[in-house]
């Protein structure tokens, strides 16, 4: 059997397994498995009543604000006698004093009490943050967080620390071999350095502790004379690179995250090439800065989100823009449960006007000073501006978007307005586990009598799922945000060679690709709406 088949059965019997992965195992089977109820026949699991002691908090996707809220779990287990002396957890912790960030996996699925099959389970990965106990009642509580916690400031920083100083005085135009007291941490292949507030480019390292400087006063900074012993720091920099590639590089090069297993490069590249192909960014980070804050800053400037997908066990990246594939459709008659359905509107979150400062002049100076930018882009939504009593203005200092990034800021502004012109519209609903294949970050089209048009008829509405939370054994609770896109228009990408004409193509390709209308009323030959090229 499989998980997909079991979840559709009326006779399904939910079952939970915990696997603790330590450096030193102590169980006879070489793996620390725990389950609730009766241990399945032939499996080396320890049986505990953990059904009420397993409390997951789901990952919450934060629209265009970076990492959002990371998923956490709390697992409460009973300690027990183990071997001739001592207890299981007492001995396990003694054997593993350095348990921080070791893996703990939760397997949720189904077991009928007769036949055990791992194919009936889904794996959920977390990293251990704290173990409390055993206490006087024999309980042990383990708390853990999803893999993106490894981006926090105490574990992932860019650039790496460097600690050099100038070995002698320097004129404001000197280049070539420049002697410093320590070039540890500098890149042998070249890079950018900060000479006490002046950014310089260097092509590599020279004998001893020297840098080969090729350019002074780089990235708009002022070339100036320096005294001996002034600080020299290696910088992390990106110059005209795609924002998706920079985010990926930060995770791969400066964090302990297993990017080979947890980043789907194909999916990230598709998102980049479909929505962000022209979004090039430039920046210089002089002092060690937590990767989390750098990534979140870039996400806000490109209007994209990053989160851990608990179902697919990968880090997802998504541009907040029009969806070019068909949404999952859910409706109240077939899918949405009666309990838990509600919506919330918050007009205080409305935005009717966007100001974006871009083209930062001097990358060594304050990124929040308007005078340090060469350009200001202002966009407004005429209907929203008229409808609100006073303008709702959002200002963004796009410190990584260069002066040539006019198309990027135009797209950013239009997406922000589309998303927020009427404020926040949040919709909550519940699905039975048989229908709960919808995941965080997925676009859905909802048909419910709670959302009506001016004539009182329900209006199918597009939302993006931002949270998916398992409640009880067989239900999932969802929260979704109205995206503002796909309103009164179709979107698509340019079709590849070999695509058939519109009337001959499949429904899937009609939804995905652009077909240009030829008649005067801007309709397709069968009166369908045309697509907008993005």
Written account of the structure:
The chain has 534 residues and is of the alpha+beta class. It has 6 domains: 3-145, no CATH class; 160-234, Elongation Factor Tu (Ef-tu), domain 3 (Beta Barrel), CATH 2.40.30; 238-319, no CATH class; 328-347 and 423-482, no CATH class; 351-420, no CATH class; 488-534, no CATH class. 15% of the residues lie in helices and 34% in strands. The chain has 9 helices and 31 strands. The protein has helices spanning 3-7, 88-95, 243-254, 259-262, 265-275, 291-302, 382-387, 406-420, 507-512, and strands at residues 14-20, 32-36, 45-48, 54-57, 72-78, 103-110, 121-132, 139-145, 157-158, 164-165, 176-179, 191-195, 198-206, 210-215, 231-234, 236-242, 280-285, 289-290, 304-309, 314-319, 328-331, 342-346, 353-360, 373-380, 393-397, 424-432, 443-447, 461-471, 475-482, 490-492, 531-533. The strands form 8 sheets. Strands 3-2-1-6-7-8-5-4 form an 8-stranded mixed sheet. A 6-stranded antiparallel sheet has the order 10-15-12-13-14-11, with no helix packed on it. Strands 21-27-28-29-26-22 form a 6-stranded mixed sheet, with no helix packed on it. Helix 3 packs antiparallel against helix 6 (291-302). The relative contact order is 0.10. The model is unreliable at 486-492 (pLDDT under 50).
């Amino acid at each position: 059997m499989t998980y997909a088949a079991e979840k559709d059965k009326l006779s399904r019997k939910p079952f939970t397994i915990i696997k603790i992965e330590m450096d030193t195992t102590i169980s006879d089977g070489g793996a620390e498995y725990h389950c609730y109820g009766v241990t399945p026949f032939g499996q080396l699991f320890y049986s505990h009543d953990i059904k009420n002691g397993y409390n997951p908090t789901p990952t919450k996707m934060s629209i265009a604000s970076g990492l959002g809220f990371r998923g956490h779990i709390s697992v409460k287990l009973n300690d027990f006698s183990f071997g001739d002396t001592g207890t299981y957890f007492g001995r396990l912790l003694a054997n593993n004093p350095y348990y921080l960030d070791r893996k703990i996996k939760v397997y949720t699925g189904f077991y009928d009490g007769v036949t055990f099959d791992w194919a009936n389970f889904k794996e959920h990965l977390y990293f251990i943050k704290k173990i409390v106990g055993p206490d006087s009642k024999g309980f042990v509580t383990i708390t853990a967080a999803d893999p993106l916690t490894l981006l926090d400031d105490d574990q992932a920083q860019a650039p790496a620390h460097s600690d050099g100083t100038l070995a002698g005085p320097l004129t404001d135009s000197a280049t070539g071999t420049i002697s410093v007291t320590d070039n540890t941490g500098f890149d042998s292949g070249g890079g950018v350095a900060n000479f006490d507030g002046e950014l310089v480019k260097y092509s590599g390292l020279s004998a001893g502790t020297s840098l080969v400087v090729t350019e002074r006063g780089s990235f708009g900074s002022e070339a100036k004379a320096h005294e001996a012993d002034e600080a020299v720091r290696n910088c992390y920099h990106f110059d005209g690179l795609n924002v998706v590639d920079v985010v990926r590089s930060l995770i791969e090069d400066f964090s302990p995250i297993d990017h080979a297993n947890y980043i789907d490069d194909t999916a990230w590249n598709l998102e980049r090439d479909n929505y962000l192909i022209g979004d090039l960014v430039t920046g210089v980070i002089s002092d060690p800065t937590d990767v989390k804050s750098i990534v979140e800053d870039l996400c806000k400037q490109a209007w994209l989100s990053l989160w851990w997908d608990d179902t697919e066990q990968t880090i997802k990246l998504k541009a907040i823009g029009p969806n070019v594939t068909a949404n999952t459709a859910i409706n109240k008659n077939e899918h949405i449960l009666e309990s838990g359905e509600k919506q919330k509107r918050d007009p205080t979150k409305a935005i009717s006007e966007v100001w974006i400062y871009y083209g930062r002049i001097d990358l060594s100076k304050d990124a929040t000073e308007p005078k340090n930018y060469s350009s200001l882009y202002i966009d407004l939504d005429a209907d929203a501006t008229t409808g609100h009593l006073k303008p709702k203005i959002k200002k963004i200092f796009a410190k990584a978007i260069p002066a040539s990034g006019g198309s990027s800021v135009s797209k950013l502004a239009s997406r922000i307005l589309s998303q927020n012109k009427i404020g926040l519209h949040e919709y909550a609903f519940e699905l039975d586990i048989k229908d709960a294949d919808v995941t965080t970050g997925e676009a859905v089209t909802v048909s419910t009598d709670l959302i009506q048009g001016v004539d009182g008829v329900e209006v199918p509405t597009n939302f993006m799922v931002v949270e998916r939370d398992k409640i009880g054994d067989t239900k999932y609770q969802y929260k979704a945000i109205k995206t503002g896109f796909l309103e009164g228009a179709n979107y698509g990408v340019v079709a590849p060679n070999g695509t058939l004409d519109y009337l001959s193509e499949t429904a899937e390709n009609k939804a995905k690709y652009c077909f240009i209308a030829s008649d005067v009323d801007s309709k397709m030959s069968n009166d369908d709406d045309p697509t907008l090229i993005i």
